[in-house]
Amino acid sequence: MSLERACALSELEQDTAKRVEVGGKPIAVVLDAEGVVHAIGDTCTHGDISLSDGFVEGETLECWAHGSAFSLRTGKPLNLPAYEPVPVYVVEISGDDVLIDPDATVAV
């Protein structure tokens, strides 16, 4: 596993997505209401739109352009028009650092 620093935990706002790039991959990092940090692919599979510009609600991140919501835990779209999942990345917290492995996705 090759963890890379994505951002500081203190940079994250609850229920808001932050776009980062790790290993050349755009990733949306979300601190949910329960204090869990999630990392999913930042590009909507329906329209090539940045998901980090969307809306966090519970355990979902909704694309602002067409309304597809993606599970922060599985990456699966929960409604149309998207039907392909986005990747979900392995996240570890070390002190104030959010570490992400851009080559390791979570199996669901």
UniProtKB/TrEMBL annotation:
Origin organism lineage: Bacteria, Bacillati, Actinomycetota, Actinomycetes, Micrococcales
InterPro entries: Rieske_2Fe-2S, Rieske_2Fe-2S_sf
Name listed for the protein in its UniProt record: Non-heme iron oxygenase ferredoxin subunit
One Gene Ontology term of the molecular function aspect: oxidoreductase activity, acting on paired donors, with incorporation or reduction of molecular oxygen
Residues covered by the Rieske domain: 4-100
Statement: the UniProt record of this protein carries the keyword 4Fe-4S: no
Pfam family, one: Rieske
Domain of life: Bacteria
Keyword vocabulary terms for this entry: 2Fe-2S, Iron, Iron-sulfur, Metal-binding
PANTHER family recorded: 3-PHENYLPROPIONATE_CINNAMIC ACID DIOXYGENASE FERREDOXIN SUBUNIT, FERREDOXIN-RELATED
The keyword Iron-sulfur is annotated on this UniProt entry: yes
